[in-house]
Fold this sequence. Notes:
The protein is an alpha/beta fold. It is built from 19 helices and eleven strands. A five-stranded mixed sheet has the order 8-7-11-9-10. Helix 3 crosses helix 6 (100-114) and helix 15 (339-353) runs antiparallel to helix 16. The site of iron/sulfur cluster (SF4) has 14 residues, from helix 16 and helix 18.
Amino acid sequence: MGVKILTQHSGVPGIDTFEVYRKQGGYAAVEKALKSMSPEEVLEEVKKSGLRGRGGAGFPTGLKWSFLAKPEGVPRYLVCNADESEPGTFKDRELMSRNPHSLIEGMIVSSYALGANTSYIYVRGELFYVIRILEKAIAEAYEKGLLGKNILGTGYDLDLYVQPGGGAYICGEETALIESLEGKRGNPRIKPPFPAVSGVWGCPTVVNNVETIAATSWIILNGGDEYAKIGIGRSTGTKLISACGNINQPGIYEIELGLPVEEFIYSDEYCGGIAGGKRLKAVVAGGSSVPVLPANLILKTIAGEPRLMTYESLADGGFATGTMMGSGGFIAMDEDACIVRNTWNFTRFYHHESCGQCSPCREGTGWMEKVLHRIEYGHGKMSDIDLLVDVAAKIEGNTICPLGDAAAWPVGSAIRHFREEFEWHVKEPRLSQQQNYGLAAYADPLPVPVTEES
Ligand SMILES: Cc1cc2nc3c(=O)[nH]c(=O)nc-3n(C[C@H](O)[C@H](O)[C@H](O)COP(=O)(O)O)c2cc1C
Ligand code: SF4
């Protein structure tokens, strides 16, 4: 059993209530931070911890906080990004619904460090049950003097609001989230200025993931140095991984960073191996936006070292032979999974979710979707495969926000590692259909794709 920080209260009955959370030692980090530490000291501990943002990019949290502009007389804001819409990622909603006070405690400690007196938790609108749970817990915290004016008699004031999100994936991108929070359409803003300078209502703002904020209480209570001892190198602490796909035990696991990927997939403590005793074919390690890797490359780096669940090891080899930690959405595919269909599915998602501001993303995602659809349904041409590579390369790096990259990477990596499977779909459309979906479903003639041209 690895160290448990975010799931330390797992299974405690009633932990979603203030009383039980308090009895378990909850809100001790607020007491410590507000009563015996300055905001700068809290920030220093977070820096020492080496904590990196758990929302996807893995940027050091303490460093991000230190960029926050502090002009005189201008409010600052902390916004918790609880939009969580990446296919394959479902950790934050569990953390919030099972243990809402742990996030509220992290929000108080983090807001104090940043000098914010108003903070928001922006939750994906469809997660209505999570919004209800959070609102109930926030009301309890106000009642007990942990939110509002003069918290615990320390002179520090904080108001905390839950903001239901727009229900679009793009609203998870931090600048789109800020637009949406302000009541506008969730379109990403061009950076700079970064939110640290001009965020909510044009004021300095930090946007952090749920898991990132929830980890700060443990860091304050136990010290940044203690947190830094967990994990390996620059990948400190623990990470929530939401595991799904063809595994025996789908679920959310808190792992200590540095765990070998092989152990994560095959040990009974985590995924419990591939369902039905089948062979592992591929893994998307960090949510749908990260490059897919074939089994051999996710288990071992190109140098033959065991691949570890760390930011560095997963990225080893760059995009040629590596991938990313991303948001921790781990999707395992067995030997029968169809890479073409999977890639088409992801691309459909990105096309649907593109906000449409940049032509490479707006047009390119649609184009990739159409081409993948016709390959999958047996109407592809060999030249389509290079066309996909070309379109993906032209989207990557040429858009306002990283949704364009997120759409391009799954396509580029799938063709890089599984080109033969794409070619087989083109050469043997009926065989591939029969293998994927059974004879009866796809007897001649094959389904007609959405478009024949382009
Ligand atoms: C299209 C898109 C969707 C995103 N969705 C989320 C999300 O749901 N939750 C999240 O924390 N970060 C999401 N991000 C990343 C955020 O923009 C931002 O980097 C993150 O919230 C910062 O928090 P962290 O420093 O704690 O990781 C998304 C990014 C993009 C481009
Ligand atoms: S990359 Fe796509 S989602 Fe992001 S701003 Fe451009 S069009 Fe919108």
